[in-house]
Amino acid sequence: MNVDYHDDLKEVQSDAALARLLSPEMQSAPFDRLDWWRLLAEHCGLQPRLAVARNGVGSAVLPLTGTGEHLTQLSNWYTFRYRPIVSPGAEDLLTALARDLPKHASRLTLTGLPAEDAERLEAAFRAAGWIAWREQSDVNHVLALAGRDYAAYIAGRPGKLRTTLKRKSGKVHTRVLSRFDAQVWSDYEDIYAESWKPEEGSPAFLRAFAQAEGAAGRLRLAVAHAADDPQGPALAAQMWTVEGGTAFIHKLAHRESAKPLSPGSVLSAALFRRVIDVDKVELVDFGTGDDPYKRDWMEQVRPRYRLDLLRPRAPANWPVIARRMVRSLAASAKRG
């Protein structure tokens, strides 16, 4: 068994076994792949630091970033969730990573973890002598189709949404593309600038990702116009991707000035119809955040967790540990 650390992703790409583990052939979500991390490095200013343990049979990869003794997860606001990447049957390598990491860091803060990944990382690091605190950091809204077609799915939506779609669908013209289109993307950027959304974190990242997903056939890029002016200004635009039986809803925006037409809702319905009836997905993932409108479309809410992992003998961690212990005691006293 050996543990290596990679700051150069080109070095990882040249490693055939590791590159395959982190490829679309093996990972059916964009956030688990080398290409995603490369875009984070190129467009979002993140310095990758991949911790990799191998035993000759499999590998475990913990994608990290940061300098100094405190490292964090290699992700940002575009990442739906974070997790270690582990070959089948190589779970023990997570503990091997945890035992080796004190040579390079005394604290890790990992956020956006699904429950099962938070549990297995916490167990691995505790077994290696780290102190671990786990707390919920966010939520993830999803829809499991359970064999339903679009008609059955939409029949189960709230009455207010169904009424909106019935009244407004004829007033909005929609297009769903499975390739990147420069004009539609320009429309999206223009709409986003006028929408209620905060300033885009990294437009260059998102465009590069959309282009790559379009080339791979995974992109679903959609745009809406007024039905009586289909050549006029676009009113809403959305970016989804589809793979491995899951549709990921990455971005959506509509013009506030077009709100009376409900173009965002009509466009969402067109995309749900496409991914359910044509792409035959089993799950739709609406990413993180507890925005009220997500509950109209989704049916389950999954927690996301943050792990704070600390080496107890590192002096820099003592104030953090003390504060954590005080808060834990206070919470216990309050419950008592």
From TrEMBL:
Extract the InterPro entries matched here.
Answer: Acyl_CoA_acyltransferase, BioF2-like_GNAT_dom
Domain named BioF2-like acetyltransferase: which ranges? 182-295
Top-rank lineage group of the source organism: Bacteria
Its recorded name reads: BioF2-like acetyltransferase domain-containing protein
